[in-house]
Write a structure and sequence with these properties.
260 residues, Creatine Amidinohydrolase, four-stranded antiparallel sheet, 4 helices, Pept_M24A_MAP1, Pept_M24, initiator methionyl aminopeptidase activity
Length: 260
Amino acid sequence: MIEILNPTLLERARVTGALVADILHTLKARSAVGVNLLDIDRWAKEMIAEAGADSCYVDYAPSFGRGPFGHYICTAVNDAVLHGRPRDYALADGDLLTLDLAVAKGGVAADSAISFIVGETRPPESVALIEATERALAAGIAAARPGARVGDLSHAIGTVLGEAGYQVNTEFGGHGIGSTMHQDPHVPNSGRPGRGYPLRPGLLLALEPWVMADTARLVTDADGWTLRSATGCRTAHSEHTIAITQDGAEILTLPTGVLL
């Protein structure tokens, strides 16, 4: 299913997107050395409830997971990159943490992810991974406009990741979003320009470049959800929900700071 949002729903999407961003950046500010991943999940649950919103994750049970997910946010540490199921783990100095959050409010969902380093130690490899995904995300957004095709966005993202020296896995990538979290079209993190679904005003997309330092192969953790690098190398993931407008792309998941 591919949804095209009318102006009323687009305004609701802006509200949901800002909420997702504010929760994520509040959690980032709280993610200090010694903080437990289960505390982050609890804080996310509390903020979602206080906003009168709904988690897109807690009852999420797709075919590839051992569902339902049962938590309110994805917390991926170091070699984990996607669908990180919160667990009893205290963050350590230098950990690379990815927080991925999807929330629905007013009948519209938004999805975003941030990767950052906990504490004072900043391993150069981790910094490079994060910066590469952020540059790739910016390139994908810059390519998004009416008349462009999904392949144009995929090509822009994949070019940045490839030039940074990373292999690209296309099993999981970006996606359409609207009344539900995951919709068509699929937006791989590598592709050929001029191919795929043509973008139209009112279309919402969640773009999410992610990479692993020295492999493109994933393995599934014993929890049935968390996806890790096959070699144990570090990983990073950046994501925004955008709306296609007459003029290009509007980023919906930017923080306002109201929860900080």
